[in-house]
């Protein structure tokens, strides 16, 4: 059985984790439960309809494509 090399070096892994944290901070899918509107924002926020019942999901959780 051969030894498998890690996919990332420790430096690359840290950089990848930081890029996910950055995306998480600046790309949030918002879904208003009151009026069903969806939008992307850089921070959690209430919708213009005035509802504060808004679901916030980090966009990095969605696959590209």
Please tell me about this protein's structure.
The chain is of the alpha+beta class and 65 residues long. The chain has a domain at 27-65. Helix content is 26%, strand content 22%. The protein has one helix at 10-26, and strands at 28-32, 38-41, 54-58. It has a three-stranded antiparallel beta sheet. β1 and β2 form a beta hairpin. The model has no long low-confidence stretch (mean pLDDT 80).
Please, what is the oligomeric state?
A: single chain
Characterize the biggest β-sheet.
3 strands, antiparallel
**N-end to C-end Cα span:** 36 Å
Residues in helix, %: 25-40%
Number of helices: 1
Task: Report the count of strand segments.
Answer: 3
Radius of gyration: 17 Å
Descriptors:
22% strand; alpha+beta; 65 residues; 3-stranded antiparallel β-sheet; elongated; 26% helix
